[in-house]
Each structure stands twice: as C-alpha cells, then as structure tokens.
Amino acid sequence: xxxxxxxxxxxxxxxxxxxxxxxxxxxxxxxxxxxxxxxxxxxxxxxxxxxxxxxxxxxxxxxxxxxxxxxxxxxxxxxxxxxxxxxxxxxxxxxxxxxxxxxxxxxxxxxxxxxxxxxxxxxxxxxxxxxxxxxxxxxxxxxxxxxxxxxxxxxxxxxxxxxxxxxxxxxxxxxxxxxxxxxxxxxxxxxxxxxxxxxxxxxxxxxxxxxxxxxxxxxxxxxxxxxxxxxxxxxxxxxxxxxxxxxxxxxxxxxxxxxxxxxxxxxxxxxxxxxxxxxxxxxxxxxxxxxxxxxxxxxxxxxxxxxxxxxxxxxxxxxxxxxxxxxxxxxxxxxxxxxxxxxxxxxxxxxxxxxxxxxxxxxxxxxxxxxxxxxxxxxxxxxxxxxxxxxxxxxxxxxxxxxxxxxxxxxxxxxxxxxxxxxxxxxxxxxxxxxxxxxxxxxxxxxxxxxxxxxxxxxxxxxxxxxxxxxxxxxxxxxxxxxxxxxxxxxxxxxxxxxxxxxxxxxxxxxxxxxxxxxxxxxxxxxxxxxxxxxxxxxxxxxxxxxxxxxxxxxxxxxxxxxxxxxxxx
Length: 570
What we know:
By secondary structure, this protein is mainly beta. The protein contains one helix and 55 strands. A hairpin with a 5-residue loop joins β37 and β38.
C-alpha cells in the first residue's frame, strides 16, 4: 500500500476554510439598496430618475400598480424608468423591489399630472375651423388624448404636452362652447370662454326664383352639417344643403302671400341671422295653404264671401264610414279653418250648393245599399231629411241645384250586377218640398250618364246662369234662367272678371275663354293634374291640387294663380 500524503490533505483543508471564510465574510458585508430620492408625479411615457444607493445591476424592479416599468441604469446611484402607458388609473402605486432580498423598498402613491388648459388661439371660432389649445400636461401621442366640444368629440390634428390642435365639430347645438380635454387618464373642463361666430348672410345669387329650384345664399359661419341648421324662406322651413360659406335652398311652394321671396333666415346652435330681400317668383301659382290628412272629393262653393268644401279624414280604413267636416276658406287670411258646426260619419256621394245658402247631400247607406237625401243650411248648419223621387237606388245621377230647385237626371240602376242607364229626370222644388218627374225632352242637350261613368258635377254660378261639367265629357254646359242649355267645347275652371275660363283636352298648356275661344299659354305645367277645383274670391283665383313637391307630402295644396296670365283673354 501507498502511504497517505499528509501535505495534500492539509492543503485541501486550508482551501475549504478559505471558501467558508470568504462566504461568511460576503454575507456580513452586504449592504441593501436604499432610496435617496424619487418622484411622486409624472406623465405617461415620461422618463423618471430614481436615486438609489447601493444599486446592484439587474437586481431592481419597478412597478406602477401591476405594470412593470422599463429600468435603465444611469449610474451607480440612479436608475431611469418610463411611466408605462398600460396603467389604468391616474394614481397608480409605485413600487421598487430589491431582487436580492425580494424586498419592497418603496410602496407609495404616484400621481399623473393633471392637464391644464390656459388659453386658446382665438375666443371666437366656427365649424370645422382649427383651434389650438395651450396648456400643460397633455401628451405627445394622440391615441392618449381626446377633446370634446359641448360633449361632441372633436377631430384632433396634432398633440404635444403643451398644445393640442383640434377641428371644431359641426354637431353643436349651443353657441357657448365648453372644451373638455382627456389626457393623463383624467378629464378636465376649461374655464376659458369660447364662442361660435355668428352666422352672416352676405347676399343671394338669384335675381329671380322658381319653386323647387335652388336659391343660392352666400355668407359666413354656416354649419356645414345641414342637420344642425335650419333655413326659412318667408318663414317657411326649407330643405337645404350647406357649407361654411354657402346655402343651397330648395325653394318651397309656400305658403306665400305674394309672388316674391322677401326674407331668408338661417339658424344654427341657437344663433339666428335674418336677411330681407325682394326676389320675384316666376311660377304661375304659389301655395297659400295646405290641408293635411283629409281627402277632398266635392266641388268647392262660395257662400257669403268665403269658400267651403267637404272633406273627410284619411286615417280610417277604406271600408269604414268616413268622418266628414266642413272647411272654410277666408280670403283675408287665405287659410282654411275646420268648422266644428258640422260632422258626419258615413258616405257622402255628392254635395251640391244651390247658390242661395243650402247644400244638398246625397248620401250612400251601405247597410241597406240605398241612398238618402238631406238639405244643409249653411247659415245655421241645421240639416233636414228629404224624400227621394224614386224607390229605386239611383247610382251616380247628374245632380245640380239651380233657382231654388234640385235636379236629378239620369243615373244608373244595378240589378243583380246588371248595370243599366236611367233616362228618368226629376226636379225637386224647395218651395213646395215636392218632386216632379220631367219629360224626356227636358234638358235634352245633356247626355245621359255613361254606364261606365258618373253624373257627378263640378259647377259654378255666374250671373243668372249655372255652368257645370260631368262624367267623361270634355265640355261645359250652361243653363240659363230660362233653362236653355248651351254647350262649350271646354271644361270650365273658374270665373274671373265676368269671363268663364276653362281648359281643353290635349291643350292643357293653355287657358281658354270658353265663350270667345281666346287662349293664354301657361308657363309651367304644375297647374294641371288636379281636379276641377278652382274658386274665385276677392278677385283672386285659387285652386286645389295634390302635393307636387317634397314639401307637405300626402296633403292637398291650395294654390293662388297669377291672374295676370289670363289678362289677354278676359
């Protein structure tokens, strides 16, 4: 056996002692890091210096709440950290941890600095204009900044810690502007005064106007979003489009009092500008009133200096009884008024005025499939029932009242679906309250009702005569006081200056004097496609037609005719 080398054993033991000694010596000499100075406020994404003694590289962690911050070692006694943009509160807890001992050496509240708005680039601003906000503690990334104007988000153009540029939104409803800035996870409201600039109309490009065409208005500070503005022409709210310096207005049909535009008013965000003008309307007719939610199917008649018409509500279904009222038109106001003195639920087949204060109402009774006749006093609106001349159902007769008599001519019979034309003619005397059957030769110039047509008349009284048209014939019949019948090759429209004015089939671009045959051209065709519903009051000519523009849909227009267009045929 070899002998043990005692010298080697001693050397090994000595080395082990040195290791143990050195290890014990390191533990007792370790000095933990201590904080010397640290910030308590800052900004998102901003670098902060924290002074720490006894820093050991890579042995320090910094957190803002649960978000770890990037740590850069600047020197033996300083570290630099960046405030994380992922924090969710403006008052996170700042923690500094010594990894050597896994010990928290700092646990305190850290606050993001509050944004401050000091001033604006202007104290008056308009829509879509750029506004600069000057202040402190904003941000340099626009994803972390938002600005509202009267609680409407504004478009951000640029951001910096001390300046934000925005575009004023158009969805604003008040002229006093409140600016709010959200930055550094906080929202602050400005106390600096800011106002919208007043809108201004400088002028109108048009020298003349046509209804439904465009009226171009120049100005300043209009809201480019038309939904947040209002335009009125002669007090009528209009459809329009807009930019900051121009309005394009669709000229409404009315209501007007005269053939000219006298005022344009613009409103937005509680601000109003009114502009007076004098622009002639070139159309041959203007709307003076409109009747909503009613249908009109009987001749308009004139009584005691006013016009009247029967109308029924359109909000009930087709088969239900109709609810009728009487509307009264005043030549002073040029407006219709719904009278409360008459109301009828049922079906009025015809309504004819006698020229002397009474209206005969020919009513259809669905339950019995029969008819009834009443007489309505237009002075006190009392109504009395009258008998009928025949026990048979007379469908669509020629019905007109003249010289205190009511005439019922022709009409149709319907027997088990077989339609035949009646040739009987009757006269009712309001004096004797009796019916008389006339001979076949009476009113022989008036054709019988067509089996596919109707004898329902449109009529007017002129002098001692009555003029009427009916059915599908394109003619006017005049009955004189002697009951003589004259026929004219036009359907009448209205009476004016002792002339009877009408139109002719296939020549609807002209008015005709039906006596002299003289004609007058009509500038625009919106006078037609209506029923024969003219009436004349106080030397003005009016007529009813269905709505023909985007204004007042599903209504009936009452239009006033430019009477000068017929001067040459009177």
